[in-house]
Amino acid sequence: MFSAKRHGYIDLDMEQNHDPPVLLTWGVLYSEIGESVGLQGELFSMSVLVISAYLIGWIWLKVTTLPALIGMLITGIAFQNLHLVHMTDSYRKLNQDLRKIALVIILTRAGLGLNAGVLRKHYAAVLQLGLLPWLVECVAIAISTHFLLYLPWIWSFLLGSMIASVSPAVVVPCLFRLRDVGYGVAKGIPTIVVAAAAVDDSISVAIFAIILNAMFSTGSATFNIIKASYKGPLSIVAGVVLGSLWGALLSVVPERGDTYAVPLRFLGLFLGGLFSLFISSMIGWSGAGPLAIVSSGFVAAYFWEKQGWIVNKNPVSNIFRILWIFFEPILFAFTGAQVTISALDPRVIKMATVCLLGCLVIRAIATFFVSFGCGLNSKEKIFIGLTWTAKATVQAALGPAALDLVNSGQTSGAAKADEEYYAEAILAVSVLSVMISAPLGALLIAVAGPKLLSKDDPTESGVPIFSRKRGSNESVQFSTIASLHGINMFSKCHNLSMLNTQVDNGSILWKEYCKSVTLIGIATGGLECDLELLLSCVHDAMVFCIGKKELENLKNIDQIKRDLRQCYPILDYLLESLDPNALLSPLPTLVLDLIQSFLCPQAQQLQQALDNYAECVTGRWACLIIHGHLVATSSDFYELDPREARLMLLLAAAQDGAPLRDTPVYLPQMSPNVAFRAVTCKLLADVYILVVCGATPALSQIDEIVLQCWESYASIIKEAKLIHPRNFPMSLTFEPCVLGLLVININKRRCVFSRHLHLTSQKGRGMSGAHRMDILRTFYVTSARDLAPELKLKEGNHNETNEIGNMCETYWCSEYHKCHAQRSGNILCCALYASTVQLHTIRLITSQILQDLSTNKDVFW
Predict the structure, then answer these.
(1) Which class would CATH give 91-452?
(2) What is the pLDDT of residues 620-634, one digit of tens each?
């Protein structure tokens, strides 16, 4: 009770302490700017308008479930007509600039949301649905407003190019809600429509800018139209090319491993977009700016995806999403504040409503007929036609543009009174389009989606999530995956269990996890015996990256696919264990159920440093990795399940040079549904430390702690690095007839392997290093593992009982080599020998190696 009261007082004090900073900020602004931020000032009233618009929009969304932007627009109209806000010419210019910034955010988000894979796969459908319906509605609006609102042709086409744009702010959330419950997922309809909407927005803004620039340029109208006819296409090409180059540059500068890569990339896109929009307008190439913004976002996202950032779900996209939260009420509130109801002509409103509704119907019909060849049925075509009814963002951003130019004194060549009528009519129609079509579009998508789209259950239909391959094998085609899954489904329908299938030089294995995910493994080359363990490790890696709950509840397949990309490097390292040629890699994986390590004299000192570091960052487990091998661990690291410890090792190896990275991870055995925080730091080239810690300290603080804890250990780490690739201390010597060695600590499930045991070259022995290690690995997997039944992991982590009695050694003999394995207590040694060595000599040498490993002071596990 005392604690609760005390916390109540603390919270109350904190709330009261918010007032002084706010008052001080207001006081500073008042002293510098003056009456504009006073209670009767323009800046103060504009701030109140934006805050009120945000709050009313939020209430509108909660009460009606319709887009919040409608409430924001109504707030702006109400403030203007109740005389709660007033803007002079100087602040109208600020209003215009804020709307341009909002337009940059809209276009950049459109570019970042374009998925190159979707465009490559469905480019015809995206272009058909993005361009042809837009063109039909643009022409329909132009013709109808020319005859019903008496707008000149160029003004009516200006209006048509703007009104024809679809609003992603309305369409995208509604489509994603349908996608999350499985509607239209099988054919990728939500993804195609979102991509088409981005294309629609881009072309709409570009054409609007070209027409507006032609209208208000100096010279005769005929000359301006002729000039626009060749300058328009050139500006489009220039915008796409320059924007693409800028986006490509942002994938290189800053480097992806830069600590400040996220803010620098955001600033590069944002400032580049502002520069493109303002400079293109200044030089008379208005169409280039919008397309440059979209192109730069698209190309940057394309290259960032190759670097591991997910399209439309990367840190830069998130910053733009947050920025839009602030600029959405600014855009719609200020657009609404341009409308004075008493000044509107009732006839204009009536005719504009007829034009809008009629043209929406025309566009829906046109969409149905122009979507031929897209692989859609009639219901899906009708649904896409209905999604194109929603208007909002582009109309709000561009609606007042013509009126701003007229009010600033520029002219298109007509009489001043006529230009004001045309510009006010365009503003009225743009606001009316938002008021009518935004709620109508949201309702139609929500109601028609479940009725017109098929619902797909991924656990029943079997949607492919990913496919990975290693070695020289060709990638598995979609048709092959579908056929293999069909075989498994057929067997399940007949209450049969498909364990595996033998094919030429290999085998296929099916294994189901969480009753929702089926993994299909195909192995060739003689190591099919480890395929089941491989699939188990792949499933662990999936849980490690996204959590078990996400895999059990496969509602949003597209999201799952994107999230799983972060585990691809881990999966690739795992697959190397079935590819003999991968042993030439600097990060070989050798065997799946062991943690690859190397032994060095400095390990004990490094363990003390790790314990100190883990304590400083309030971490629970920590490890040091050199060249992909575990060198030292904190004292409690072995609380982790061996498979979890191995995943930690692979996570550090997959950091790809990043100096400091914060990754949420799920431990498949210990915590499959609650994420831990894994922080990986690069100390030197190919040297990483990984620690699992809490939400604090911040990444910047950890950076400082790393410097404090590890600066004095640089020379020790450099000495430890010299052990690689021998992986054994130099104080351990081996007979020349030993061609390769694999040593396993059974309790800690760590293994040390080497094919570089001797300082002199062994090229003359007729066996490559990769071949030697492949023989050792095969020997361990098929024979030597039986000497340590504790290593055989089963589901639920139960150890298999010892079925081999007191057997402590085994061997292979062939014409070209001999292998011998012997166990002594907790250590298992597998050695590869030349074929000329006698068996009794082999046994003596292996026994001597085991004795040296147990007595040498430089060996520290």
Answers:
(1) mainly alpha
(2) 889 999 888 888 888
Per this entry, what is the length of the chain?
861
- Coil, strand or helix: which one is 668? coil
For 499, the token pair is 């364990």
Contact predicate 788/744, CB 8 Å: yes
**Nearest CA to 277 among 521, 425, 481, 102?**
102
In DSSP terms, 595 is beta-bridged to 750
CA 562 to chain centre: 6
Asked whether this chain's domains 600-721 and 738-855 adopt the same fold, the reply is yes
C-alpha–C-alpha distance, residues 681 and 782, integer Å = 37
The amino acid present at 69, given as its one-letter code, is: L
Written as one string, the DSSP assignment of 347-389 is HHHHHHHHHHHHHHHHHHHHHHHHTTTSS--HHHHHHHHHHTT
Among candidate residues 201, 216, 141, the one with its CA nearest the CA of residue 401: 216
User: How far is Cα 266 from Cα 734, in angstroms, rounded to an integer?
Assistant: 56
Question: Which residue shows structure tokens 């017109």?
Answer: 452
pLDDT in the model for residue 261: 87
| Cβ neighbours for 678, distance < 8 A, ≥ 6 positions apart | 648, 651, 662, 663, 664, 665, 690, 691, 692
Cβ atoms 687, 626 nearer than 8 A: yes
Judge whether 169 and 393 are in contact, CB under 8 Å. yes
DSSP labels, 807-852: --EEEEE-SSEEEEEEEETTEEEEEEEETTS-HHHHHHHHHHHHHH
Condensed to tens digits (0 to 9), the pLDDT of residues 261-302 reads 889 999 999 999 999 998 988 887 877 888 899 999 999 998
Residue 580: partners with Cβ closer than 8 Å, 6 or more residues away: 525, 770, 771, 774
Torsion of CA 682, 685, 686, 687, to 10 degrees: -50
Instruction: Write the Ramachandran bin of 523: left for phi over 0, alpha for psi from -120 to 50, otherwise beta.
Output: beta
d(CA 262, CA 320) in angstroms, rounded, equals: 12
Provide the 3-class DSSP secondary structure of residue 24.
Answer: helix
In b/e form, how buried is each residue of 628-645, taking b as 16+ CB within 10 angstroms? bbbbbbbeebbebbbbbb
Q: 823: helix, coil or strand?
A: strand
Q: Which residues contact 471 (CB under 8 A, 6 or more apart)?
A: 525, 578, 579, 581, 582
Report DSSP letters for 305-318, one per residue.
Answer: HHTTPPTTSSHHHH
Q: Are 243 and 276 in contact (CB under 8 A)?
A: yes
In which element (H, E) is residue 631 found?
strand 629-633
> Two tokens at 140?
């329909």
The amino acid that residue 432 corresponds to is L
User: Per residue in 81-116, is it b (16+ CB within 10 Å) or e — as a string?
Assistant: beeebebeeebbeebbebbbbbbbbbbbbbbbbbbb
The full set of domain ranges for the chain reads 1-33, 91-452, 459-578, 600-721, 738-855
Rounded Cα distance between 756 and 732, Å, is 13
φ, ψ of residue 848 in degrees (nearest 5): -65, -40
C-alpha pair distances (Å), 716 with each of 508, 609, 634, 650, 652: 47, 11, 17, 23, 20
Q: How far apart are CA 578 and CA 469, in angstroms?
A: 10
Pairing assessment for the beta strands 750-754 and 595-596 based on DSSP bridges: parallel
Q: 């992991």: which residue's tokens?
A: 793
SS3 call for 755: coil
Q: Is the four-CA dihedral 622, 627, 629, 631 of positive or negative sign? A: negative
Fold of the 600-721 domain: Beta-Lactamase (3.30.450)
What DSSP element (H or E) covers 639? Answer: none
Inform me whether the pLDDT recorded for 53 exceeds 70: yes
Whole-number Å distance between alpha carbons of 676 and 679: 10
Beta carbons within 10 angstroms of residue 180's beta carbon: 15
**Backbone CA torsion sign across 627, 630, 632, 633:** positive
Return d(Cα 226, Cα 207) in angstroms, integer: 15
Residues 128-186 have pLDDT tens digits of 999 999 999 999 999 999 999 999 999 999 999 999 999 888 888 888 778 766 688 66
CATH of domain 738-855: 3.30.450
